[in-house]
């Protein structure tokens, strides 16, 4: 992996994520990424998207495989909600403190509930870090424990 040119600025970009992970006892490795691009493949690491979902009483952070669809119907049933929506970019930023493309439970404002797709179980995953210049590699099962995530089958029905 390429070393960031300005290591100090790079580290400051994901400081909240690092502090939150440390406070929860979650081992995390931050890796450089190119802003605005999908994460480069890393051997043995599953890229994951974090989606901010709005429901009547607040937000939920949903973690799912980057390259896979998830079932909105299963998510609605799990959350007991008839209606869920995606906030606009400003709403996602206000809810989490992170811009789209960098959203992560790590250090997110709001301490929102986390739902993790069961397909991630047992995997090393790379998620957002709050910074467009870094991804965060974590063990999915450890992340689920650290955030008391609900792990459920969210796979899209064929």
UniProtKB/TrEMBL annotation:
Matches recorded under Pfam families: tRNA_edit (PF04073)
PANTHER family assigned to the protein according to its UniProt record, in alphabetical order: CYTOPLASMIC PROTEIN (PTHR30411:SF1)
Top-rank taxon, per record: Bacteria
CDD domains according to UniProt: YbaK_like
Protein name (Swiss-Prot/TrEMBL): YbaK/EbsC family protein
Annotated Gene3D superfamilies: YbaK/aminoacyl-tRNA synthetase-associated domain
Occurrences of domain YbaK/aminoacyl-tRNA synthetase-associated (ranges): 43-145
InterPro entries cross-referenced by the UniProt entry: YbaK/aa-tRNA-synt-asso_dom_sf, YbaK/aa-tRNA-synth-assoc-dom
SUPFAM superfamilies found in the cross-reference section: YbaK/ProRS associated domain
């Amino acid at each position: 992996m390429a070393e960031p040119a300005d290591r100090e600025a790079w580290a400051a970009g994901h400081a909240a994520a690092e502090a939150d992970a440390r406070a929860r006892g979650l081992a995390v490795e931050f890796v450089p990424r190119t802003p605005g691009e999908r994460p480069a493949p890393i051997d043995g690491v599953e890229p994951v998207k974090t989606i901010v979902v709005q429901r009547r009483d607040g937000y939920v952070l949903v973690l799912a495989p980057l390259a896979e669809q998830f079932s909105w119907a299963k998510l609605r049933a799990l959350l007991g909600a008839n209606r869920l929506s995606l906030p606009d970019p400003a709403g996602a930023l206000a809810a989490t403190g992170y811009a789209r493309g960098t959203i992560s439970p790590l250090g997110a404002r709001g301490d929102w509930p986390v739902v993790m797709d069961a397909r991630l179980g047992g995997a090393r995953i790379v998620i957002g870090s709050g910074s467009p210049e870094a991804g965060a590699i974590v063990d999915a099962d450890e992340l689920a424990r650290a955030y008391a995530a609900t792990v459920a089958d969210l796979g899209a029905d064929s």
